Amino acid sequence: QRSPVILVGDFNDSPASRAHKVLTAPETSLRDSWELIEGEEDERSFTHHDFCGNSKPFRMDWILVDFSFRVTSARIIHDHVAGKYPSDHYPYMADVEFID
After folding, report:
1. CA-CA distance, 100 to 89, in Å (whole number)?
2. Can you give the pTM of this predicted structure?
3. Whose CB among 7, 43, 52, 68 lies 3.0–4.6 Å from 64's, allowing a Cys bridge?
C-alpha cells in the first residue's frame, strides 16, 4: 500500500517543461492541482514576479497530488502592501480533501 503524496515546490520551470511531464506521467499518479481545477494558464496564473508584481510568463510553482486527494479549489495570491511583496513569487494555495 502506498502512502498519500503531495509534492509542492518552486520548480523554476513551466507546466510545459520536461520536468512537469515526468512528474505528472501516468506511472507517478501525480496530477497538477491547477490543471485539475481547470485553471487558465495566463497572466493571473504566473507565480514569479521578482518582488515587483510584474509576472514572468509562466507558472513555476506547482502543487502535485496523487489520487488520494480531491482538489476542491486553488488560487494564486496576489496580495501586497503598498507595492511590497513578501517573496519574489506569489503564493499558490490549493484546498484538497483526502479521499478515504
Report:
1. 33
2. 0.89
3. 7
